[in-house]
TrEMBL record:
<protein>
    <submittedName>
        <fullName>Methyltransferase domain-containing protein</fullName>
    </submittedName>
</protein>
<dbReference type="InterPro" id="IPR029063">
    <property type="entry name" value="SAM-dependent_MTases_sf"/>
</dbReference>
<dbReference type="InterPro" id="IPR007848">
    <property type="entry name" value="Small_mtfrase_dom"/>
</dbReference>
<feature type="domain" description="Methyltransferase small">
    <location>
        <begin position="199"/>
        <end position="315"/>
    </location>
</feature>
<dbReference type="InterPro" id="IPR002052">
    <property type="entry name" value="DNA_methylase_N6_adenine_CS"/>
</dbReference>
<dbReference type="InterPro" id="IPR050320">
    <property type="entry name" value="N5-glutamine_MTase"/>
</dbReference>
<keyword id="KW-0489">Methyltransferase</keyword>
<dbReference type="GO" id="GO:0036009">
    <property type="term" value="F:protein-glutamine N-methyltransferase activity"/>
</dbReference>
<dbReference type="Pfam" id="PF05175">
    <property type="entry name" value="MTS"/>
</dbReference>
<keyword id="KW-0949">S-adenosyl-L-methionine</keyword>
<dbReference type="GO" id="GO:0032259">
    <property type="term" value="P:methylation"/>
</dbReference>
<keyword id="KW-0808">Transferase</keyword>
<dbReference type="GO" id="GO:0003676">
    <property type="term" value="F:nucleic acid binding"/>
</dbReference>
């Protein structure tokens, strides 16, 4: 998709166009009809299911209600019950397929946006601040986005203002739009409790919000170099580190994995599932072909000081699903010239772990999150 794609539609005898906005990276819809308050929920659901987008020209609050009505129809149990998936990976693939189809249908309800990010619909709220945080400064072009995306922008805007309480840190982290929020606190508890090999220097690989770098600083590490290659993550990490008063001890560096030099402690919390993300926002969850995981392990020995430790934080959900063999990880350690010094594990506490109605409940109920303390194997250690 081009950097500035456009969406076109016909209203009467006139053809209109505007900039298409999709943070999920979806292409502009090919079929667009103008819709208003006279459109019924059943018709809207049918059109959306068939791939026709609905450009809303009616009351904004009615659009919100219509989206809820479409969602109820999407989530309605099928009349004929489907056979249970044969394997966990079948359940995973079916779940992702269903979620993708659900997103496509719900994203069909579109809202026109003014050049200043205002919305010229009756009873429309002021979303300009939320749009500016996600899209950047207004560029004086009218645009169109899905109502569902706009609701996500507003939700992220409020989360950024409110922040996420991190018990292990004793502070709040404020995630920016498009940066994965550290809502799974169990892995942070592992980092907070593992014995530090040194307090002089640490690398935080793929810092995201900067929460791990902040936690290491709180634990007394004198200097931390935190890396990421996503501009939003870099800005988010700098904001949080400055807010928490650690700017003199934490450096935020743009890098693909490792910064220059070596450190006695290198921490990495890569995406946990080796699968292809369906949108840019899913890169924090899905690591295609385990690229980040493999890159971290392959380069770890060369970036550790003698007797240094690499901390890998990873869930075993991929093994339970069948996306990764159970011995793949330990074989990868050996191949990279690494040895396991210790392994600390904890059960997740997020709501899905105990939700019996979740399609992946059978595998989530067995999930464990682990902190692997890795050292350089004696025979393959780097020269000092």
């Amino acid at each position: 998709m081009s950097a500035n794609p456009t969406i076109e539609w016909t209203d009467g005898d006139l053809t209109h166009s505007a900039r298409w906005r999709s943070e999920a990276g979806s292409p502009p819809p090919r079929s667009v009809v103008v819709a208003d308050d006279t459109l019924t929920a059943d018709t809207a659901y049918r059109l959306a299911s068939e791939g026709t987008a609905l450009l809303w020209h009616g009351d904004f609050q009615n659009a919100r209600q219509l989206l809820q009505a479409i969602a109820r129809r999407v989530d309605r149990p099928p009349k004929k019950k489907k056979a249970a998936p044969a394997t966990p990976i079948d359940a995973f693939n079916q779940h992702r397929q269903a979620q993708s189809q659900r997103a496509r249908t719900l994203n069909a309800l579109l809202i026109p946006i003014e050049p200043d990010y205002g919305i010229a619909l009756r009873r429309a709220p002021d979303m300009r601040a939320a749009c500016e945080q996600a899209y950047g400064p207004a560029d004086d072009q009218p645009s169109v986005a899905s109502l569902r995306e706009l609701q996500g922008l507003v939700g992220a805007y409020e989360w950024r203002k409110k922040g996420v309480e991190i018990p292990a840190l004793g502070e709040r982290i404020h995630p920016h739009y498009g940066v994965f929020s550290p809502v799974r606190g169990e892995y942070l508890d592992l980092i907070a409790e593992a014995p530090l090999p040194a307090t002089t220097l640490a690398f935080d690989i793929g810092t995201g919000t900067g929460v791990i770098a902040a936690l290491l600083a709180k634990r007394g590490v004198e200097r931390i170099v935190a890396t990421d290659q996503d501009p939003r993550a870099l800005a988010c990490a700098r904001d949080n580190i400055d807010r928490l008063g650690y700017a003199k001890r934490v450096s935020i560096v743009e890098a693909d994995l490792f910064p220059e030099g070596r450190a006695p402690l290198i921490v990495c919390n890569p995406p946990w599932l080796p699968a292809r993300p369906s949108s840019p926002l899913e890169h924090a969850i899905y690591d295609p072909e385990s690229r980040m995981l493999k890159g971290f392990l392959a380069g770890l020995a060369a970036h550790l000081t003698p007797n240094g430790e690499g901390w890998l934080i990873l869930s075993d959900l991929a093994e339970h699903i069948g996306l990764r063999e159970h011995d793949t990880l330990t074989n990868a350690f050996s191949h990279a010239g690494l040895k396991v010094l210790d392994k600390r594990s904890i059960r997740p506490r997020h709501p899905k772990a105990s939700d019996a109605d979740d399609p992946l409940h059978a595998v989530r109920s067995r999930e464990m999150t682990s902190l692997w303390r890795l050292g350089v194997a004696a025979s393959d250690g780097p020269a000092s």
